[in-house]
Design brief:
heterodimer, A: 434 residues, alpha/beta, TIM Barrel, Alpha-Beta Plaits, 4-stranded antiparallel β-sheet, 20% strand, B: 452 residues, FAD/NAD(P)-binding domain, 5-stranded parallel β-sheet, 18 helices, binds flavin-adenine dinucleotide, binds flavin mononucleotide, binds iron/sulfur cluster
């Protein structure tokens, strides 16, 4: 059986599944039950200075749904903890004492002043917590007060605060990044420069999930007005995966531990984050949608998959896919693939035809008896038909081996690798280094 | 004295009073809004969708389902009514398993088609509940058209003509409009007086005058209609029924299934309707199934349907057959009645011979058997009776060319009374609608223009 135990910057947990800092980790009552359900660790709901903040008293969440109201994306306008600091600290201490094998990380957000950070850190340390996470990501409310994403969007501040923390505490420091920025590598590099032990990402994405077309108010609507919130859940996973990969393959930050967050809903999502360089993952929306029990599927699924693949530890999975993330310019232009339709699996819906005919390369023929076939002389191998086909594996893209005729170009498929950098159509082409 | 299913002979009130309400209510509960969205989400929005081709009225099914899915059920209903103004009834009575749902790619893929019929009902119910009519008539043309028969064919024709700006008078021999929607369709398919509600809603487009209790061939002649109107449409259905032509056909308690069903449909209190303890239905079509199932629902102890050919040749679909057997009806195939036996002038049993079938045809075998019966329903087909003189027939029905033109100038026909197409509500609607368009084109000289 695969060993799921995790050591993230020295913080140990029986599995790599942590609950992200959010309502699930808001109080002792929840966290105890989360640990009982099997979660490997938690990042406690972000603490701030007293007097504690006040939340809106109307709806805090908006959402988008798929079929049968499957929740695909969640938006929130909640702030950091709205309970007194002392209460949170007391509860953190009690839970850590009773669950010594679980990771207890405390998320923090105080004003961007050295004094403020230096005051809160010893209080957290005294709880016996394993580490801290600096919340530089919350995109709403707190950012209007110069905290959260307002800090995360200025690399210099990130570096500065990370440094203050490293100087003040023995606890590992994780910097939680905001995705509301054009290039995620800058804040990650700043965190590293400030001495942070790790980054975690993503926090939520600025969003308006919907507009009420009767009242013309964005949702969630507070007395007829709405403000942007933070988007999370399954819909944000692709964005989070890319940001994680950017950091994992950046020369300056490569090797820095990453805690992956954003849309982790199943074991498979978690495995993908790990493969792109994460040491563990954090989960919020999946728990908020299905309750703490979802972790049991994540654990059994990851474990089964690792056994099938022969991976014995989480560390072995971590970063496996990173070498395969590259820039467009290095993609092999000699690789030629064509769509193939498995006629036995085809249910004749014609979606591939409509998609290719109307919006792609007119490369699918439709017979009067609804038999769909690919015209190799037109197919550019774009994959659209594969993506719109409702039957999994009915249409596949099959590579042509070197030497076979590509009927579209009339040329034989060239062997070997050749990319855009050396392509004759590229005005800036460079001859490949000899 | 209270009766029960085992009360001998023919008796009313075999069941507890409230059993009847349940038995004759909607066969399937309509979809709720959430169920509808979930069901709609299963549609793949196929290109050139096979379900559209399979629908005789060619409703744009993927479009209306997508409209439901995006929360615009009224727009969905518009899409349906554009093609089929009786989309509400069709949603309830169409044998979808052999039409749209039979062609659904998910039927091929998983044996579970998108619930097109139920979704159609969801959309049409939603718009009809708003009690406004979604169509506005074109500028009046001053033309007057007579429609004979207020069944699905006549109603669809009248509505389309009114829409195009013509004035229409609809004549029907019966007291109530609707044709077999009102007098034939199984009660549990059109529960809640739906047939009359639908006709009222359809007529609210305006421009259609309904005259019931007027029979062509009695109060009216075709010649008169041709003189008084710019065009005539005949949607008279099949008023005649086929007889068994065996000994005992005229005994007491031997009835035409369609008459029994009509009585049943009109009975407001089903507990007052007498039914036999041993009911025998002869035939294998939809009418036979409906007579058998509804006899069972009235409390008959034993109901047997006997059809002369094999199951695969039955007019009733697999689905209808299963519905019959699951209600407790016994289906016997490969046997044909040879004699009705009576006691005191009343039917007592029916003697059947096994049939033998090969390439040369069907013959009766020597071996016979008897089934006890105190009530017999004949459901071996309807036919056209008393077609107005001068009309060329195609077989036993009125012959028509494209657009429903008969051999008489100015006379169109459609529905069960014409040859071609299955005898289904939806086919009648399609033919009525298409005839209306053809009449419109003829009257407005559109054909001539197009030819130029
Ligand atoms: C028992 C039974 C169950 C059925 N169940 C289904 C089902 O579940 N699904 C389905 O799709 N189809 C079903 N059908 C078939 C369907 O009802 C018919 O195909 C459809 O009603 C045909 O429509 P129509 O307008 O041509 O004729 P009809 O509905 O028969 O209407 C003809 C109208 O013309 C009137 N008429 C007749 N002669 C004259 C005259 N001389 N003068 C004036 N008026 C006249 C009649 O009174 C009647 O109102 C069933 C039929 C029967 C008998
Ligand atoms: C209601 C809500 C409150 C949140 N509060 C915090 C918070 O206090 N501190 C923080 O760092 N992140 C907060 N987050 C962000 C989550 O920790 C997490 O980064 C984000 O939801 C993405 O993960 P997910 O897709 O698994 O939900 C919050 C998210 C939600 C939905
Ligand atoms: S891969 Fe793209 S171009 Fe080729 S058949 Fe499919 S949709 Fe058309």
């Amino acid at each position: 059986m695969a060993d799921l135990s995790s050591d993230f910057v020295g913080i140990k947990s029986p599995n790599p599944f942590w609950l992200a800092s959010a309502p699930p980790t808001d109080k002792e009552y929840n966290v105890r039950r989360a640990f009982d359900a099997g979660w490997g660790g938690v990042v406690w709901k972000t603490l701030g200075q007293d007097p504690h903040v006040v939340n809106v008293n109307g709806p805090r969440y908006g959402a988008i749904w798929g079929a049968d109201r499957r929740l695909l994306g969640l938006n929130n306008i909640e702030l950091i903890t709205d309970r007194p600091l002392e209460v949170n600290l007391r509860e953190i201490k009690a839970v850590k004492r009773d669950y010594p094998d679980r990771a207890m990380v405390v998320s923090l957000m105080v004003p961007c002043e050295e004094q403020a950070w230096k005051e809160i850190l010893p209080l957290v340390e005294a709880t016996g917590a394993d580490g801290i996470e600096l919340n530089f990501g919350c995109p709403h409310g707190m950012s209007e007060r110069g905290m959260g994403a307002a800090v995360g969007q200025v690399p210099e501040y990130i570096e500065m605060v990370a440094r203050w923390c490293k100087q003040t505490t023995r606890m590992p420091v994780i910097v939680k990044l905001t995705p509301n920025i054009t290039d995620i590598r800058y804040p990650a590099r700043a965190a590293k420069a400030g001495g942070a032990d790790a980054v975690s990402l993503i926090n939520t994405i600025n969003s308006i999930t919907s507009v009420n077309l009767d009242t013309m108010s964005p949702e969630p609507s507070i007395d007829g007005k709405g403000s942007h919130g933070g988007f999370c859940g399954p819909a944000v996973k692709p964005i989070a995966l890319n940001m994680v990969a950017e950091i994992a393959r950046d020369a300056e930050t490569a090797g820095m531990p990453i805690s992956g967050i954003g849309g982790v809903t199943t074991w498979r999502d978690a495995a993908e984050f790990l493969a792109l360089g994460c040491g563990n993952v954090q989960v919020c929306t999946a728990a908020m949608t299905y309750g703490f029990k979802v972790v049991q599927e994540m654990i059994s699924g990851l474990s089964e998959w690792m056994d099938q693949k022969g991976y014995v530890s989480v560390a072995e999975v971590s970063g496996r896919a990173v070498p395969n993330v590259t820039d467009w310019q290095y993609l092999n232009l000699n690789y030629v693939a064509k769509a193939r339709i498995d006629q036995a699996a085809c249910i004749k819906c014609g979606r591939c035809y409509a998609a290719c005919e109307d919006t792609s390369h007119q490369a699918i023929a439709m017979s009067p008896t609804r038999v769909f076939t690919v015209k190799d002389d037109e197919c550019v191998g774009c994959n659209l038909c594969v993506n719109v086909c409702p039957v999994e594996d009915c249409i596949t893209l099959e590579p042509l081996s070197a030497g076979t005729l590509d009927e579209r170009t009339g040329e034989a498929v060239k062997p070997g690798y050749a990319n855009w950098t050396s392509h004759p159509n590229n005005p800036a082409s460079t001859t490949a280094a000899e | 004295m209270a009766h029960s299913p085992t009360t001998p002979g023919i008796a009313a009130g075999r069941l507890a009073k409230d059993a009847y309400r349940g038995n004759f209510a909607d066969l399937y509960a309509p979809l709720g809004p959430h169920e509808a969205i979930v069901a709609a989400d299963r549609c793949y929005f196929c290109h050139d969708a096979p379900c559209i081709t399979a629908c005789p009225t060619e409703i744009d099914i993927p479009l209306f389902i997508r409209q439901i899915q995006t929360g615009t059920a009224d727009a969905a209903a518009r899409t349906i009514f554009d093609q089929n103004i009786l989309g509400g009834m069709c949603a309830r009575v169409c044998p979808t398993e052999t039409l749209c749902e039979g062609a659904c790619v998910r039927e091929a893929a998983e044996g579970k088609p998108v619930q097109i019929g139920q979704l159609q009902r969801f959309a049409t119910d939603s718009l009809m509940a708003a009690d406004t009519h979604p169509f506005v008539r074109a500028t009046p043309t001053g033309r007057q058209i007579a429609v004979v028969g207020a069944g699905p064919a006549g109603l669809a024709c009248a509505h389309r003509l009114a829409l195009r700006g013509h004035d229409v008078v609809v004549f029907d021999a019966r007291k109530k409009p609707g044709g077999l929607n009102e007098y034939g369709i199984a009660t549990y398919k059109a529960a809640g007086n739906f047939a009359q509600r639908e006709v009222a809603w359809l007529l609210s487009i305006g421009g259609i005058t309904l005259r019931t209790g007027v029979r062509l061939g009695r109060e009216l002649s075709l010649a008169e209609l041709q003189d008084d109107f710019d065009a005539v449409f005949l949607g008279v259905g099949l008023a005649g029924v086929n007889g068994l032509q065996i000994e005992g056909d005229d005994y007491d308690n031997v009835h035409d299934a369609v008459d029994f069903i009509a009585r049943l449909r009109q009975a407001t209190d089903k507990s007052k309707l007498p039914v036999g303890r041993h009911v025998l239905v002869i035939g294998g079509g939809m009418t036979a199934v409906d007579a058998a199932v509804q006899s069972k629902l009235l409390g008959a102890e034993h109901v047997t349907m006997v059809y002369r050919r094999g199951r695969d040749r039955m007019g009733a679909s697999d689905y209808e057959q299963t519905h019959a057997t699951s209600t407790g009806v016994r289906i016997i195939t490969g046997a044909s009645p040879v004699r009705i036996l009576a006691r005191d002038g009343k039917v007592d049993a029916v003697e059947f011979a096994y049939t033998e079938e090969d390439r040369s045809g069907m013959r009766l075998g020597d071996e016979t058997f008897c089934i006890p019966a105190d009530q017999v329903f004949k459901a071996i087909g309807q036919r056209l009776d008393d077609a107005p003189a001068g009309l060329t027939l195609d077989g036993a029905k009125i012959g028509v060319s494209a657009g429903g033109r008969t051999s008489l100038p100015g006379v169109w026909a459609g529905g069960d009374c014409v040859s071609g197409g299955e005898d289904l509500t939806v086919t009648a609607v399609a033919q009525g609608r298409d005839a209306a368009e053809d009449i419109h084109a003829a009257l407005m000289g559109l054909n001539a223009l197009a030819a130029e």
